[in-house]
Every structure is written in structure tokens, then in C-alpha cells.
Write a structure and sequence with these properties.
The structure holds 2 protein chains of 2 kinds. By secondary structure, chain A is mainly alpha-helical. Chain A contains 10 helices and no strands. Chain A has helices at about 1-10, 10-35, 65-100, 105-120, 120-130, 135-160, 165-175, 180-215, 225-235, 240-270. By secondary structure, chain B is an all-alpha fold. Chain B has a domain at about 95-270 and about 280-310: MetI-like fold (Orthogonal Bundle), CATH 1.10.3720.10. Chain B starts with a helix and ends with a helix. The chains are: A mainly alpha, B mainly alpha.
């Protein structure tokens, strides 16, 4: 695996991979690692400083912050995976088809992408989630559906190049049918940039979910989403800053992990792009 | 250039139409009856019927869309359910404050981002470069509203040197923290972009020639290399500026800045649908137009673009 060797040499990328791995482990095992029930209120223990019994302190309802941060990892992991699965399947399918066939299909798909990208991402998400009853499922789907456009543009431009290459022309000359050429030959050659985009897209998705939950349009109380936990702590910033500080650190570290890993992945897959800041995740 | 510009401008028209459709559909599918929201508790069947007809709600969808667009063009963007204020008035009242904040944030981000990027490129692979790029990665990874809260906690609450929030009539002390917060992501992004762009340019022949002529290093970097390296950076600045104008929702909410982002957010929390629809539409139009300007500027700065895209 040449790719893996190139990644292994990149210390930043390995740091990123480690941070992503931590999220994966916490997202799966969080509930067993958490010392307390993240929803259990105990008003006699409200707003306690970080201590040996509550490493990250407690919030105004006496809930253990560490336990809530651990449960929150699962939400962030889910939002990343679910939204990127939607963005990836929509974006790659529409991108490959419009790049390969061209013509009316291409015009239609690319105009739809233009309109999607014409909206500032966070604003469009706010408008969509506000139009429905706020819930995490709406957030997952909305982030995925908004994310397809960038992915489709990326894959289409790759497919435009690939369809002219000799081996695709050869396959066509041999009389292979379009579907088979698409799936067997064009798709694999277009997938690399999409995988990089998914990695960086995980970072965006986690940030966007946190932002929506912070505003109150994502996870509803008492669900421990990192974004809504930061919002919970706003009124106690002077007396109990740890309520907001720890979930914010968790978001930052996980997003940092995906950014570093995605960047390293791009350098390893396409050395020509080394060092380009390119498509790094940057919602508001 | 003219041909490129015309093409790019014509391209914007279907996009704007698509934007109109999306904002209309979002309101159309939103739950809740707008007429009930307007009349509140005191209503009778006749009033409801009259209001429905007035708002064209009894007509088919395409006809409603027509009346919606016709109203927009005539400056009728609807009225707030809560304050009865015309939506367009509210937008025009709050937008200048967002423009003010976004301009200062962008100015700060450009100056500091380019500076960090250039220094990191010149001192490539030293500890200075390491620090600069660590900041760049952290800056795009941490949520802005969280950084804003930490700044409030440290600078305003503990040190007490700046006011924690509010507009203060636009006075400078009130501007510092929101502008820093809003500009953070761009600073980090511009720093990375400037660095990688500089590293490419520094290796080009004409820069070597400038060095060979015996020009001082800072003239080579500042005058010759930077000019070419800044072209991609200018695009990033333009796009981020567009994003700030249209979506400083989080920063404005943290700092109680009375801009259009906070105006939109308040409307969302109160489910004031005409205001939501109006602000989203307005901000999307601003975003599209700023992007158009950036593209035209880019085409003018870098002639290769004009041919590639046409």
C-alpha cells in the first residue's frame, strides 16, 4: 500500500488519524465509558467545579459534563457519517453521470448545483431546519442534501477528463455498454477526490450540526449534542465556564483531526496538490 | 473580457430564479397557517376568508408564486407577523450594521492572514512556520461562537478591558471582539492560502531573476512575489466577505450585534415566516452578487481564467 506509506510518513496526517480514531472509539463505546447517566439531574450537585468525582464538572442541572461529552461524540460521529453518506452517494452518482453523458442531463444537474451553492451554507441549513420541526434527523439529511452540490461538481470535472482517456475509449470501441463503462472504469477513477472531500466534509458536517444545535435548531434538550451543551453554558460563563469549554474543545479537536487527515490524504493521493489549502472545510 | 463578463452575468439570472423558487418552497412547506399567525386569538370565519384571499392563499401554487415574485419586484416583501413592520424596512435597517462588522473583520483577517502566510513561507520549515500553520489549522477547526465566548470570558469578564457585547452606537471598543471572532476563520484560511501560493511563486524564474539582479530580499518578496501570490488569495477574501455579509448569524448572536444575522435568527426563534423568507432571500442575493463580482475581478486579474471558462 503505497498510499498508506505516504500517509505514515506525514506526522500531521497521523495525528489527524489518531484524533478521528478517538472519535470513532468514543462514538461507539462512549455509553460504557461514561461514569454517570448523561441525562440524570441532581440539583444538589449543580454547577460543581471539575473534581475527581466529576472530571469536567457539572452543569446547572447537576448533570456530569464528562458523561455528556462522551455521549455527544456519538451524535457528532452519526451526523458526520450520515450526512456524508448522503452527500457522497448523491454527489458521486449525479457527478459521474453528468460528466460522462454531458448534454441536457449535465446542464440540469449543474444548474441545480449552482442554485444550491448560491446560498450561504449555514443560512440555507437554518432556513431548511426552521421549515421543519427541529430534530437531529432533519439536520443529518439537510447537511447531506446541501453537501451534494460541491461533491457533484468535483466528480463531474474528473469524469470529463476520464471519459476522454484511452482506456475508456478502448472499452467503448470494444462495445462495452455505458453502464458497465461507468461503473467499472469511470467511477473508480473519479472516486479519489470524492473520498478526500468526504473526509473534509466530515469536519464541516460536525461544525454545522454543532452550530445548528447551538442556535436551537438541531438536537433538542436534553440530548447531549456538543453544540447545545455550549449554548447551555452561555448563561453561566462567569461562574461555571467549564460547561461550555469542554464540549467546545471536543468539537475543535475532532474537526482538527478530520482536517489534518483529509489534508494528508490529499497530499498522499495526489502529490501535485501538496500544500494547497484548496477545499479545506470552512463554513462560517 | 467583455464577453466573459456578459456570459458570467447572464449565468447569474437562472441562479437567482432558482434562489427565488427555493425560498418560496421553503415557506410553502413550512408548517403552520400564516393567516392564523396574523390574526391571533380574535378571529371569525369572514376575516380569515378575506385575509386568505388578500394573500392569494386560496389560489393554486404557481399563482401564489407569481404574486410572490410580483410583490418582491414592487418592493412588497411582506410584513412581520409580530411587529407588523414591513420586512424590507427591517432588512435595510439591520444590514448596514452587518456590512460595518464584516468590513472591519475582513480587513483585519486580510492584513493578519497575509502577514502570517508570507512570514511562514519565507521561514518555511522553521518554528515560526510551524506556529503559523498550527494557528491556521486550529483557526479553521474550532467553532467561531465558542472562540467568541472564550474571548468574552477572558478579555471582557476577567480583564475587563473591552465591553462583552452590544453595539454601543458603533464605537470602536464594541467592535474589536466581534470583528476578531468573525475574522478568525478567514485569518487562518488566508494564512494557509498565502503560504502555499507564496511557496509556488518563490520558485518561479522571474523571482529568481529579481534575486539575481541583487534586489534586497524584502523587495523581492514584498514587491515581486507577493503580487502574483495574492491572486488566489483575493478570490478567497471576496468569497469570505460574501459569506460574512450573509451569514454572521452566530457571531452577531453571541455579541448581541444588531445586524441582519441576529435579525434573521430572532425571526427564526419566533417562527416569523415572512421575515425569515425575506432575509434568507436578501442574503442569498447579496451572496450571489458578491460572488459574481469576485469572478469578474478574478477574470480581470488573471486573463487565463477568461479563456478556460468560456
Amino acid at each position: 500500500m503505497e498510499l498508506w506509506k505516504a500517509l505514515e510518513r506525514n506526522r500531521l496526517a497521523m495525528t489527524g488519524a489518531a484524533l478521528c480514531a478517538v472519535l470513532l472509539v468514543l462514538g461507539i463505546a462512549g455509553p460504557w465509558l461514561a461514569p454517570y447517566d448523561p441525562l440524570r439531574q441532581d440539583l444538589t450537585r449543580s454547577l460543581q467545579d471539575p473534581s475527581w468525582s466529576h472530571w469536567f464538572g457539572t452543569d446547572s442541572f447537576g448533570r456530569d459534563i464528562l458523561s455528556r461529552v462522551l455521549y455527544g461524540a456519538r451524535i457528532s460521529l452519526m451526523v458526520g457519517v450520515a450526512s456524508q453518506a448522503i452527500a457522497f452517494s448523491l454527489g458521486v452518482a449525479l457527478g459521474v453521470v453528468s460528466g460522462y453523458y454531458g448534454g441536457r442531463i449535465e446542464t440540469l444537474v449543474m444548474r441545480l448545483a449552482d442554485v444550491t451553492l448560491a446560498f450561504p451554507t449555514l443560512l440555507l441549513l437554518i432556513a431548511i431546519t426552521a421549515a421543519f420541526q427541529p430534530s437531529l434527523v432533519v439536520v443529518f439529511v439537510a447537511i447531506g442534501v446541501v453537501g451534494w452540490a460541491g461533491m457533484a461538481r468535483l466528480v463531474r470535472s474528473q469524469a470529463l477528463v476520464v471519459r476522454e482517456l484511452d482506456f475508456v475509449q478502448a472499452a467503448r470501441a470494444l462495445g462495452m455498454n455505458d453502464l458497465r463503462i461507468l461503473v467499472r472504469h469511470v467511477l473508480p477513477s473519479c472516486i479519489a477526490p470524492a473520498i478526500i472531500a468526504v473526509t473534509l466534509g466530515m469536519a464541516s458536517a460536525i461544525l454545522l450540526e454543532a452550530a445548528l444545535s447551538f442556535i436551537g435548531l438541531g438536537a433538542q434538550p436534553p440530548t447531549p449534542s456538543w453544540g447545545s451543551m455550549i449554548a447551555d453554558g452561555r448563561d453561566f460563563l462567569r461562574t461555571a465556564p467549564w460547561i461550555s469549554v469542554f464540549p467546545g474543545l471536543a468539537i475543535g479537536l475532532v474537526v482538527l483531526g478530520f482536517n489534518l487527515f483529509g489534508d494528508g490524504l490529499r497530499d498522499a493521493m495526489d502529490p501535485r496538490l501538496r500544500g494547497r489549502a484548496g477545499a479545506a472545510a470552512r463554513p462560517e | 473580457m467583455l464577453q466573459y463578463a456578459l456570459k458570467r452575468i447572464l449565468h447569474t439570472i437562472p441562479v437567482l430564479f432558482g434562489v427565488l423558487v427555493v425560498t418560496f418552497v421553503l415557506l410553502y412547506i413550512a408548517p403552520g397557517d400564516p393567516v392564523m399567525a396574523m390574526v391571533g386569538d380574535r378571529f371569525d370565519a369572514a376575516t380569515l376568508e378575506r385575509l386568505r384571499a388578500e394573500l392569494h392563499l386560496d389560489e393554486p401554487v404557481w399563482s401564489q408564486f407569481y404574486h410572490y415574485v410580483a410583490g418582491l419586484v414592487q418592493g412588497d416583501w411582506g410584513r412581520s407577523y409580530h411587529t407588523r413592520q414591513p420586512v424590507l424596512d427591517g432588512i435595510l435597517e439591520h444590514f448596514p450594521k452587518t456590512l460595518y462588522l464584516a468590513s472591519v473583520a475582513m480587513l483585519f483577517a486580510t492584513l493578519s492572514g497575509v502577514l502570517i502566510g508570507v512570514v511562514s513561507a519565507v521561514k518555511q520549515s522553521t518554528w515560526i512556520d510551524g506556529m503559523g500553520m498550527t494557528f491556521a489549522f486550529l483557526g479553521i477547526s474550532f467553532p467561531v461562537y465558542w472562540v467568541g465566548l472564550i474571548l468574552i470570558l477572558v478579555v471582557a469578564v476577567q480583564w475587563g478591558v473591552l465591553p462583552p457585547s452590544g453595539y454601543g452606537g458603533g464605537a470602536l471598543p464594541y467592535l474589536v471582539l466581534p470583528a476578531l471572532t468573525l475574522g478568525m476563520r478567514s485569518t487562518a484560511y488566508i494564512a494557509r492560502l498565502t503560504r502555499s501560493s507564496m511557496l509556488e511563486v518563490i520558485r518561479l524564474d522571474y523571482v529568481r531573476t529579481a534575486r539575481a539582479k541583487g534586489l534586497p530580499e524584502w523587495t523581492v518578496i514584498g514587491r515581486h512575489a507577493l503580487k502574483a501570490a495574492l491572486i488566489p488569495v483575493i478570490t478567497a477574501i471576496g468569497l469570505d466577505f460574501g459569506a460574512y455579509l450573509s451569514g454572521s448569524v452566530l457571531t452577531e448572536s453571541i455579541f448581541a450585534w444588531p445586524g441582519i444575522g441576529r435579525f434573521a435568527l430572532n425571526a427564526i426563534l419566533k417562527r416569523d415566516l415572512p421575515v425569515i423568507q425575506g432575509t434568507v432571500l436578501f442574503l442569498a442575493i447579496v451572496f450571489v452578487l458578491v460572488n459574481l463580482l469576485v469572478d469578474l475581478l478574478y477574470g480581470w486579474l488573471d486573463p487565463r481564467i477568461r479563456y478556460e471558462r468560456s
